[in-house]
Amino acid sequence: MAPVKLPTVQIVxxxxxxxxxxxxxxxxxLQIGAAGQPDLGFWRDDTGxxxxxxxxxxxxxxxxxxxxxxxxxxxxxxxxxxxxxxxxANFVAxxxxxxxxxxxxxxxxxxxxxxxxxxQRYYGESLHRHYAHTTYSEPLNLTGEIIRTRYxxxxxxxxxxxxxxxxxxxxxxxxxxxxxxxxxTWLFAILGELQKRLDVTQYNPFHARLFGRIxxxxxxxxxxxxxxxxxEVKIVNLEPVNYLRKLGYYLRSRLTGRKYQASC
Length: 264
Hints:
The chain is α/β, with parallel strands linked by helices. It has a single domain (9-121, 139-244), classed as Spore Coat Polysaccharide Biosynthesis Protein SpsA, Chain A. 38% of the residues lie in helices and 21% in strands. It has helices spanning 55-58, 61-70, 103-109, 127-134, 138-150, 155-159, 177-197, 210-226, 243-256; strands spanning 9-15, 27-31, 43-44, 75-80, 83-93, 96-100, 115-118, 121-122, 166-167, 173-176, 230-233, 235-237. The strands form 3 sheets. It has a 7-stranded mixed β-sheet with strand order 3-2-1-4-10-7-11, sandwiched between helices. It has a 3-stranded antiparallel β-sheet with strand order 6-5-12, with no helix packed on it. It is globular.
């Protein structure tokens, strides 16, 4: 009897600075926004087919694009250098032991679903309203126009952004490669058209990273329209998260109309 071929899995760990990386070859460290930057000793997103030079606008989506274009594993995933999917595998970083997904856990999860995602984040107001409170709404409105005219099958779920209060954020995922091909073909076509219609020079460096933020919202639009089955997994943060500061920034933005000026 021929041996059973196990599916291959590759999870890209996106980083823009030196950082501890898991020893397990399941995880592939990738320097994003690498174009013109000193080498960190990791894989770089300015190799192969890439959008590395657009990282100031696309943020971690240059890592997604690189993974889509250059990896051939059966399942491809993305995590951040300081954010991982929780699991049972040991990983020591910043002097602390963390538990992250192992290869066996990923394989088991993907036997019952097509995608692994973080748990949904709750905003207490519609996603569209939250976006408008914290950043400039023109890019999101233009995205809606593009979807209604070019991808009308997705218009209904896009309109639900004005009602839904939960979303899978952070652009973290593990997905079957054939689905990733479909998702990225759709996503980057929309973002490419948005880039043609929008003058990003009107925004400061923080707000210019708008394509990454819109990508976060479009993931659920694509998943829900295509009825893709997913499993949610808790996120492990390797660095402390100041939730009180986040809440303070948000309340100030909502009450005063002042947009965010930095990540919080």
